[in-house]
Every structure is written in C-alpha cells, then in structure tokens.
Amino acid sequence: MPVMQRAAESAPHTRHAHGSPRGFPLAWILALAYLLIIAYASLQPFRDWRFPPDEILRFLIAPWPRYITLADILINLIAYAPFGFLLALGLKTRTGAPAAVMLATLLAAMLSLAMESAQMFLPARIASSVDLLTNSTGALFGALAAPLLSPSGFPGSRLAALRQRWFIPGTLADVGLVIICLWLLTHLHPTAQPFGTGYLRATFDLPAYFFYTPRLLLLAEGAVVFFNLLGLGLLISALMRRASRPFGLIATVVTVGLAIKSIAAVTLFRSPGPFTWLTPGVALGLLAGALLLYPLSRAPRPAKIACATACFCAAVAAINLAPDNPYQAVPPQLLAASPSHFLNFSGIIRALSELWPFLTVTYLLVAAGTTRASSQASGIEEWT
User: Fold this and answer.
1) Cβ–Cβ under 8 Å, residues 346 and 334
2) What is the pLDDT of residue 375?
3) What's the rounded Cα separation, in Å, for the pair 372 and 384?
4) Predicted pLDDT at 36
5) What phi-psi label fits residue 282: left (phi over 0), alpha (psi between -120 and 50 degrees) or beta?
6) Taking the chain, what is the end-to-end CA distance rounded to the nearest angstrom?
7) Coil, helix or strand at residue 271
8) d(CA 229, CA 195)
9) Residue 329: what pLDDT?
10) pLDDT tens sequence across 158-178
11) Under a CB-based contact definition with an 8 Å cutoff, are residues 121 and 51 in contact?
12) Distance (Å, rounded) from C-alpha 167 to C-alpha 178?
C-alpha cells in the first residue's frame, strides 16, 4: 500500500468529523436532490395540464376534508422531514442552530406551497391546506433533528467516529453512504418487490414485453434481486476500508431493508402477512446473490465499482422487461377514489424508488472517473 494511501487511512480527519466546509456543499446537494424527488412526485402524472380557477391559492381557505386520519398526518410529516433536516444541516454552517431551524422550516413551507399551487393545474391532483400544514410541520421536526445529528453534537459525534473507523474518508464516500440510506427508504414503496428499484413502465405507460408465465416470473424476480443485491453489496464494499470486513455490514443493511419492507407491509399497507414479499423468485435471487457476493467483495475497488455499475444496469433492464405479476394487489390507500393523503407520501417514495438506480449509476461513474491526483489533493482514499 502506498505511503500516502496508508496515511489517509490512519490520519484522523478532524475537520471533516467536526463539521468541515465539505459538509456544506454535501448537505445542499442532497437537499436539492430531495427537492427534485418531491417535485417529481408532486407533479405526476405530468399530463392533462389545465388553466386553474382564477384564485389559484383558494385551497388555503377551503374547508378541511371531512375525514383526516392519524396515519395520513404521520405520513405527510415523514415525507418532508428529510428535506427540513438537510436544509438545516446546510444552513447551520452559515448561521446558528435556531436560525437554521427557522429558515429551513420556512423554505420547506414555501416549497410545499409551490407544489400545492402547481397541483391546481393538474386535474388528477388535489391541493390541500392540510398537506401544506403537515408538510411544514414535518420539515420543522426534521430541522430540529439536524443539530442533534450533526458531527459536532451527540449522538452525531459517535456516528462520525464509526464512519471514520469503517469507511474511507472524503465527501465522495459520504455521498455513497447517503445513497445506501436512500436505498433503505425505497422499501417503503408499497407495490414494488424487494430490490425492485428503477421500475418505469407504470409511470411512462410502457407496454409489457413478455406475457406472464409462472416460470418466467420466477426467473425475472430472481434476476432483479440477484443483480441488485450484487450491486448494493459491491457498493458497500467499495466504500469500506480495506482492513474492514464488509460481508457482515452488507448482511446487516440488507436485513434492515427487508425488515422495513415487512413492517411497512403490515402497518402501512394492511398486508395479510409481513412476509408476503418473500416469493420463490426473491428467495432464489437472495441465495444466488449472496453466494457470488462473498468472493466478489474481495476484488480490487475499481473492479467492484465497474461490476456494481453493470449489475444496476442489468437490474433496471430485468425489472422493466419482466412480465406483470397478476397476483399483486394494490393497497386500498393508493386507489384513485381514496381520499387519503397517503398518495402524497407514496408518490415521493415511488419517485425515489424509480430514480434510485439512475442516481447510483451516475455516482458510480463519477467514482470510477476519480483520478489519483484529485483523490490525493482532496484527502480522499484512493479508489484503486
């Protein structure tokens, strides 16, 4: 191992761990990415635009819906909490914590107001003052969490220490860790199979390319899980220090993702059981992916990045070419006639699930193009 690379592994990155300037652009980049996801989800189905009534903002004084459930309120709170958190984290480097919380909440409320107003142009969407209120409150809760989880406070300092000990340093690795956390959230997608990110047929009204047969569906589900598991595992392994053992962490991340899928199936989507997602195809993909992932996790870092990129591309192709599952039921909260505000949250999660593999492939291509000179200049451990 080169001397400079060994020094990068052992040197304490104090400035980064205690809120270096690198955290400022990272927080803003992630906030912008989440803003785009919110806009993508809020403006679906992107068609049948119309001129709204003369008073575009009249939904602000309209009567509240007759039925508002606790689940609807909690879901809207959760949807905007990450946005408020990221905004406050970025603002905290320029202002104090109280000002950052207030500004983050105000900016999130302005975004929610803009999205609700834009929905007045879409006949398929319903603007609501309840959504504006709950979205803004969720952003406030997220902003209040930012000072606690920042690297300069507790428990953020503990998390920063774990991050420094297990993973390679630098902003590039930070972005990769955030992408992995976003993958966990994609399991809240109610109609997607586990690891089923990048499914675009429903959004763009694309036809099914193959007719359903039990064997073809089994192979398609297995292929989707197999390629995504390999890609995710190799991404995690590429972010870890060479002295670390990645297989245990990969297994933990996958287990947490599947646990989120099981809990959401019962609590949010009223599924008959927590393991309805565990089909023979999913089990086949998990087994085959785990067997091949163990030896591949020992490959050089550039090989892991290249293989992970190819796996995610193959997974997107597999899920969009797969036949439709005739036994998959749509949760009642997602039916068009349902008055539930769950549709807003579901739209954000669906957008995240559809865009996640494309975001990840873009990130991997940037990581693959990182040169030795730029890595050493920025203090990032070599990707070689």
Assistant:
1) yes
2) 46
3) 8
4) 84
5) alpha
6) 10
7) coil
8) 7
9) 58
10) 777 877 888 988 878 888 888
11) yes
12) 13
334, 190 in Cβ contact below 8 A?
yes
In angstroms, the Cα distances linking 99 to 86, 94, 157, 368 are: 14, 10, 22, 39
pLDDT of residue 316: 96
Please give the residue that has the higher pLDDT: either 377 or 313. 313
Side chain identity at 68, as an amino acid letter? I
Task: Cite the DSSP H helix spans in the chain.
Answer: 3-10, 14-17, 23-42, 70-91, 97-118, 129-149, 156-166, 171-185, 214-239, 246-267, 280-296, 301-321, 342-368, 372-378
**Residue 75 CA neighbour count, 13 Å, CB half:** 24
**Residue 93: is it exposed, middle or buried by C-beta count within 10 angstroms (0-12/13-18/19+)?**
middle
Comparing 22-26, 212-216, 327-331, the range with the smallest average pLDDT is 22-26
Residue 240: helix, strand or coil by DSSP? strand
CA-to-CA distance for 34 and 86, rounded, in angstroms? 9
More confident call, 114 vs 162 = 114
* Rounded-to-integer distance, Cα 164 and Cα 241, Å: 9
